[in-house]
C-alpha cells in the first residue's frame, strides 16, 4: 500500500471564510483539501457544527486529516475531538478562536487535554477572544500556544489573505507524519554494500 499524507480539512467560522480569507488561500495550496460547509454559517450552533465536521469526514473517505479551524469553527473542532476519540483528524490548528462565553458555550466545550496534538494561534487585540482567554483554552486543551501580536481577529478584515504560519504548520505536520511512516528497517537493497 502506498503512503498517503494526511489531507487538510478547513473549518471556517461564522459566515464562512470568503475568497479573500486566509483559509480559502490555504485550501488552494493543497489540491486534496476539503472544507466543512455549514448549512447556515450565520447561526453558531455548536452541536450542529461539530456534527457537520463528522459528516464531512465520513463522506470524504478513509485517510488521516490535519484540521485548520478559525473562530467559531475552533469551538466546533474542539467539541468534535472531545466527542470522537476515533476521529481521523491527526492534528489540529486553532486560529483566533471565538470566546465561548460570548455564546454561552463554555460548559459545552472540553475542559481537558484533547486527544490530538494541537496548536493555538491568537492575537493580543482580537475582539473575539482576549489573549489571556486564548492562553487558558490552549492550556486546557493541551495545545501549544503562540500570540502573533496585535493582528486583530486574524481574518481578511485584519489583512490576512495568505497566512504563511498556517501553511508552515501544515507542512511540518505532514513532515512529522511522513517520518513516522518511513520503514523502520532498512530494505534489502540498502544492505547491498555489505555483500
From TrEMBL:
<protein>
    <submittedName>
        <fullName>RBBP9/YdeN family alpha/beta hydrolase</fullName>
    </submittedName>
</protein>
<keyword id="KW-0378">Hydrolase</keyword>
<dbReference type="InterPro" id="IPR010662">
    <property type="entry name" value="RBBP9/YdeN"/>
</dbReference>
<dbReference type="Pfam" id="PF06821">
    <property type="entry name" value="Ser_hydrolase"/>
</dbReference>
<dbReference type="InterPro" id="IPR029058">
    <property type="entry name" value="AB_hydrolase_fold"/>
</dbReference>
<dbReference type="GO" id="GO:0016787">
    <property type="term" value="F:hydrolase activity"/>
</dbReference>
Amino acid at each position: 500500500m502506498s503512503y498517503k499524507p494526511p489531507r487538510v480539512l478547513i473549518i471556517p467560522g461564522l459566515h464562512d471564510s470568503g475568497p479573500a480569507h486566509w483559509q480559502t488561500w490555504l485550501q488552494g495550496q493543497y489540491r486534496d483539501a476539503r472544507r466543512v460547509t455549514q448549512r447556515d454559517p450565520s447561526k453558531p450552533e455548536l452541536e450542529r457544527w461539530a456534527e457537520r465536521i463528522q459528516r464531512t469526514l465520513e463522506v470524504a473517505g478513509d485517510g488521516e486529516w490535519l484540521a485548520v479551524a478559525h473562530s467559531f469553527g475552533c469551538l466546533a473542532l474542539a467539541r468534535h475531538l472531545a466527542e470522537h476519540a476515533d476521529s481521523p483528524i491527526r492534528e489540529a490548528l486553532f486560529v483566533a478562536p471565538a470566546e465561548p462565553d460570548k455564546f454561552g458555550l463554555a460548559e459545552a466545550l472540553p475542559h481537558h487535554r484533547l486527544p490530538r496534538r494541537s496548536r493555538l494561534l491568537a492575537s493580543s487585540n482580537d475582539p473575539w477572544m482576549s489573549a489571556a482567554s486564548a492562553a487558558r483554552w490552549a492550556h486546557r486543551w493541551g495545545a501549544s500556544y503562540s500570540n502573533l501580536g496585535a493582528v486583530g481577529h486574524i481574518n481578511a478584515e485584519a489583512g490576512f489573505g495568505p497566512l504563511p504560519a498556517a501553511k508552515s504548520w501544515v507542512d511540518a505536520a505532514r513532515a512529522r507524519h511522513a517520518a513516522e511512516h518511513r520503514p523502520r528497517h532498512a530494505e534489502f537493497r540498502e544492505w547491498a554494500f555489505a555483500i
